Amino acid sequence: MLALQVGQCGNQLGRALFDKLAEEEDATSSRDSAFFHSPEDFCNERSVVRASNTRRARAVLIDMEPKVIQQCYKPSKSRKAASAWEYEPKNSFTRQSGSGNNWASGYRTQGTQAESELLDLLQSEAERCDLLKGFLTLQSAAGGTGSGLGSFLTEKLADFYPSTSLLNAVVWPYQSGEVIVQNYNAMLTMASLADVGHGIFMLQNDAANLICQKLLRIPHPSFDAMNEVLAAHLASSFLTVDAGSACRSGGLDPLNEICERLCQHPAYKLLDIKMVPLMPHRSKKFSTHSWTGIVKHLHQMQVANAAFEEGVDWDISLATDQGRAFNRSNFSAYDKTGTLISNSKAMLQTLAITMDKAYDMFSHGAPNYTELLGAVNGIETLVQHIVNERTRVLKYEKKSDHENKDAKLLVILHFYEDAISFVRAYEVCICWNGLSTLD
Prior knowledge:
Subcellular location: Cell projection, Cilium; Cytoplasm, Cytoskeleton, Microtubule organizing center, Centrosome, Centriole; Nucleus
Strand content: 15-25%
Low-confidence stretches: 46-50, 242-251, 312-326, 391-439
Pfam family, one: Tubulin
Number of strands: 14
Number of helices: 13
CATH superfamily of the largest domain: Tubulin/FtsZ, GTPase domain
CATH topology of the largest domain: Rossmann fold
Structural class: alpha/beta
GO molecular function: GTP binding; structural constituent of cytoskeleton
InterPro entries: Delta_tubulin, Tub_FtsZ_C, Tubulin, Tubulin/FtsZ_GTPase_sf, Tubulin_CS, Tubulin_FtsZ_GTPase
Number of domains: 2
CATH class of the largest domain: Alpha Beta
Largest sheet: 12 strands, mixed
Function: Acts as a positive regulator of hedgehog signaling and regulates ciliary function.
Mean pLDDT: 76
Distance between the termini: 29 Å
C-alpha cells in the first residue's frame, strides 16, 4: 500500500496513522509490512545511503506550503523507541504559494503546474514496491490543496494505474463551518472521487470531536487528539486483512480486500467506520469485553447511525458464526476490539446537509459556476441512486428468499483477540429495513 498525504489535514492524519500502524505492527511482531519499507529493502539500492536502520513509511507527502511537511519529518514526541519509523526524505513535494482554500486552485492551477513532478515522484516510490496493490489518499474536503489537488491526483492515478485499488480517506469538516467555501469544496471533491475512486472513507470531524469528549474524556480536543481517533479507526480496518486472501494474492492487501467486499457496485463507494470499544487509556486495564457485547454494540450503532455507542441500548438478539477477517493480537491494548466497515446509507445525511448548504449559497447569490453546479447535481444524483438501488435490492432479496448471500455482503467486521484458541471474526449482512443477520 502506498499512501498519499495531501494538504495540511492529510499530512497530519497520515503521520498519526503511521504512528498507529507502527505501534500495532510491533505489538504483533509482524515481519512483513504492507505499510513500511524495512531497512533490508534498501540493501540493493546502491544510490541510497541509509543514515539509519529505521523503517520508512511507504508514503509521499504533498502540500503547497512547507510548514506541515517539515513538522512531519521531525521525530514524534509520542513515538516510542520500539515503534520508531520515519519518512523517506526525498518523498515530499512542497511549494510556497498555498491554495487559499480554493478547490479550483488546487485542482487546476497547482495540479496542472506540478503534474509532471508529482507523477515522477509517485512512480519512483511505486517502483520500490515489489507488488503495488493500492493507493490510499489522505485528504480533507474543506481546504484547497487536500480537496482540489487530492482530486486531481486521484484522477491521474486512475489513468496511470487502472488495475490498482484506489481508496480515499476524506476528512469531512465541522458542520458548523471551518471555511466559508467548504460546502463548495466538498461537493467538487466528492463529485470527482465518486467518478474515478474505488472507495471513499468519510471521516467526520464532528464525530471525532464527540468521541474525544464523551468517551475519551478530553474536554477540549485538539486536532492531534482527533487525528489519533481517526487514525485508530483506519488502522483497525487495515490490520485485519483476510489471511487466506493475503496468501492467495502474494502478500498483505488491505485496500483490495475492502474494495472487493464493499465497493463492487458503483453506488457502494461511500464507506463508514465504526469501532468498539473506545475509552481512556487509564481505563483499559480495568475493562473486559465479550464478543456478543461488541457485536451487539456495533449493530446498535449501525442501526442508529451513531458514531459511538454511548446512550445506545436496545435489546437486539444476534446469531453469530465464524467469518474470515480476524487478527488474534490485541489492538490498542484492548482485550477485544471490533471494527465495522459499512457501505450503508450512513453517510447520506452528511452529504445531504452539505448539498443543502451549497444550494443555499447559490440562492443567496454566492459565486456559482457551471462545473460547480454540475458537481452538486452529480452528488444529488449519486445520493438518489444509492437510495433507489438499495430499495430495488431489498425487493429482490425478499423475492429471492436469501438465495444469494454472497451478493448481499455489505459490512465487514474485524475482531482482535489475544487467545490463540479463540475463533475468529464475523461478516455482517445488513438488510435495508434495519434488521441484520450474521452469515
